[in-house]
Amino acid sequence: EETPISEDEIPFDIPDSWEWVRLKSLVILIGGTSYKKDDVTNAGVRILRGGNILNNKLYIFDDDVFIPYSFQDSEKNIRKGDIIIVASTGSQQVIGKPAFVMEDKSNCQIGAFLRIVRPLYIEIATYINIFFSSEYYRERIRNKVQGTNIYNIRSEYIENMLIPLPPLAEQKRIVAKIEEAFKAINALS
Description:
Layout: E1 19-22, E2 27-31, E3 45-48, E4 53-54, E5 57-58, E6 65-67, E7 83-86, E8 88-89, E9 98-100, E10 108-110, E11 114-119, H1 125-133, H2 135-145, E12 151-152, H3 155-159, E13 162-165, H4 168-188
Parallel strand pairs: 3-10
Antiparallel strand pairs: 1-13, 2-11, 3-6, 4-5, 7-9, 7-11, 8-12
């Protein structure tokens, strides 16, 4: 059930051709896999945790945790276009930290402190990545989780978050411009 967006929720003006939408109309959230210490094995399903997220990328490490194949759940397998976020942590710096998945990761799931944000349409995945890279998103999340020792992102924090959505052609132009800017920045370093 789509909650209408009220005027006072809108944080800033956007062009007329754009619209404010709630993230839940563009993504689904998938929780991580819970397991016990006794479940850990030498082979099986690889479980990625917060430490696997560095600089908005997902890294595979030799010391990753594995749990038995009985935990395999195809819905929870990490896919191209997914955004993995840290959903529970003691650090306000780390909460909400994203990693953008560039290719399917076979036999990889996430641990219980992470969440998969999966775009409903692969065409919008890159634009959604840009949103999750923004200070706007991080600030919103930090404000939501304040006042506790362990920061937890509840599903509704993400689902009800507003995102300014341009028409698809414009999303593609924005993405191209940002990628161009990053190439220029990388060329300098």
